[in-house]
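Example record

The entry below shows one chain as it appears in the dataset: sequence first, then structure tokens.
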Amino acid sequence: MRVAIAGAGAVGRSIAGELLENGHEVLLIDKAPTAISVERVPQAEWLLADACEITSLDEAALQRCNVVIAATGDDKVNLVVSLLAKTEYGVPRVVARVNNPKNEWLFNESWGVDVAVSTPRLMSALVEEAVSVGDLVRLLRFSHGDANLVELTLPEESALAGTQVGDVEWPEDTSLVTIIRGTRVLTPSREDSLEAGDELLFVAAQAREEQLEDLLSVRRNSAAS
């Protein structure tokens, strides 16, 4: 997979390193000469250019990329890069960094963004996830279809503990994608049973989040008693 990353700062370089370790081709683009640190990520391709300029993106051959990541520290730049990548070059997957949570509403399919990653929101979500049991925590927002990656740790008192995945009537527009049980990461099958303490990761429509939380949480059981 070929990936172009706009923004060769600490965030961009870190992403590049991870992708290279996983066997992908990576191109780092930045207009600041001081950001071009080839020795830090020598396996990557580097391009000194303005990623907001069509001529620069032509030089980067963006049409050959499977993914573009707009990872600069400027939300305006990330939006422009995302829009150009999607509309001018037809890049299948565009991921954009949101620096200011107040701008998060802009990072949607209208601007060519498939996945918006807000570092402040993600950090606060991880704090919530670490201390919350039985509460739904939104980890990541997907622009297309208004879907989110959400997590809930199944509480001891949940009526669904011990229930097989295939026997649960999940809300529409939700999909259980992963069960994290201790140090194990499980791809759920219909025969797998839910256990108290499981971290459940779903892709769910935002309109279904409250319904999903009611299904899994202690509050559901309390209301029924």
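Notes for this example: Confidence is low (pLDDT under 50) at residues 219-225. The domain at 2-118 is CATH 3.40.50.720 (Rossmann fold).
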